């Protein structure tokens, strides 16, 4: 190993000297022959030292001294030859073998090493063995000649081009001379050796092929094909292979570990993944360690690195991460028409959460963006069928629930419907405080978290209830609204457990917990086969696959909603239909991962008609991708009859598929009785609401206005004018008036007053409208009597809004 100021030739001389000194120390010093050899050796060493003077020693020398110094330099090779000759005489050998390795550890000295091989090691008494990639020597030699052949700063392009050509020619000629083809020995690459390699573990011999499969089966459990394992990388050098085998010994992979041993195993594998800079493997093991450390008391999927895109972008912890976050997410956002819709600020939220320089550990799916019309409205909910779900019969769970507080003891929490459960699991209305009574946007990452959590064995009923409750209460973990702490956030996450006044989440938590318990009991034999911690890799794969598919479906849905689109897809889409699309993409991703051979790598139900999706017979004949993957798995089971290990693993994949297909987030809301619930979009076209819509569309001033519906653009307009700063929740009332009464370009105070008065002519409208007007007045009065001269008011840029506030503040309300 070269030190900072050492020359390679000095190191070679020093090593030969050390070996000879050791030999002399063992010989008889009084022997005449040994004394003669010793003197000859020291004399040759002295001559060699004099002739190895560096160029710097020539400084200050003139005349005959300088000539003599040059003369000494000319004798260098001859003196080196004599030195080696005297050394082998003492060592009583025919030649000295010099091994040269690790030039890559001192790249700036690489050419010096090669040149010393040329000058000194051409001695017939030395056999140099130089190891390393020839590409390394080519690169460093050409770098040396580049510096000599041309000036990189020259403006003469022809001169530079000729210099580059000359440099390449000199490099080839030079290395051909130093390392002639006849003397080169090419070694097999590690890739060619691995298939025939065997590993000795104590007294047991294991082929690398079997070791690799056991390793992948442990850390890529149920992920069997190249797509599911696409980020796995075999050792690329003997050093990497030896380190891997030392870190994860073959026998360890067959042991059943307790939590402590499992943590040690994943920690060792995590270290090797960091060495390989394999972000996916690192995230898998780090997530397993976190899961094992945390226990069962509190579950939050965001604590698992593999599902948390924000934590993965920590440049201090993971400076070697390589996946561009912002660019990838913007590409996914651009696939949605108008990036989800005008005024939805998806791009703004992304840029506020991730800078251009941020990278993450692994490829992550598109985030769940806000998409226009991809919601359930309040009128739709009010006009729904309200299908009852069977009562909870789990008395043990009900008894435990009552211990959680008064809100869990109310009789109301036992009154739940399929619609309520659908809304609590698959939608979120806390995007903006003012949307709380207007829209329920659709998201699927909350359902994914519920599924993943329910795979974890939970014996403590209190933990089960509170964890399910907290998952339902939190914003969907992979939605764009959960990524940025902006005004979009309805409220902050709570560190301590507290229960909402809204009993629907409590009742949904109760019924889901009961159903999860029943589901786990039904499939208890399946759960005995594998620990949930092993499922992190396959669910990481499913997570990417299913959310990528849902982003495509959202884009197709949004395009189908365009008036110019004549396709029949999504024409009558309900939330239950969208849940079916989510379900089959999740099931398809499990099959895709579990097939040993080539699966069909395509998303499912991305453009199917709503009527096809909700009809089981039509769906089976229409959806070829899912059916083909299912058939492939079944065919592989038959073909592997003589291989019990592979057969057992395929059966595990099938059992995982079956138990997920009957998970409560699907089975409780999708069956023969309720496959047509909650129309998606701005209007509910069900029979129950058709008359209401007709009334709302009438131009007569006495018609009943829908004073609960808000256009998103009107709400954004209010927010952009910062009305929430002084109106608070009453901003919702202004948005209702903008959407339903003061429409279009109306801005004059007189016209606004006329429109509001006309709307109040209906007794039914009057009560609702007066309540909203009074709410706005109360908010204005709290600002003081000089509000209309304040900077808050003058900062309102929209004339229509400012005049509405003026009219509302002085409008006479009577009950005539």
From TrEMBL:
<feature type="coiled-coil region">
    <location>
        <begin position="746"/>
        <end position="773"/>
    </location>
</feature>
<feature type="coiled-coil region">
    <location>
        <begin position="616"/>
        <end position="643"/>
    </location>
</feature>
<feature type="compositionally biased region" description="Basic and acidic residues">
    <location>
        <begin position="681"/>
        <end position="697"/>
    </location>
</feature>
<protein>
    <recommendedName>
        <fullName>KAP NTPase domain-containing protein</fullName>
    </recommendedName>
</protein>
<keyword id="KW-0175">Coiled coil</keyword>
<feature type="region of interest" description="Disordered">
    <location>
        <begin position="681"/>
        <end position="702"/>
    </location>
</feature>
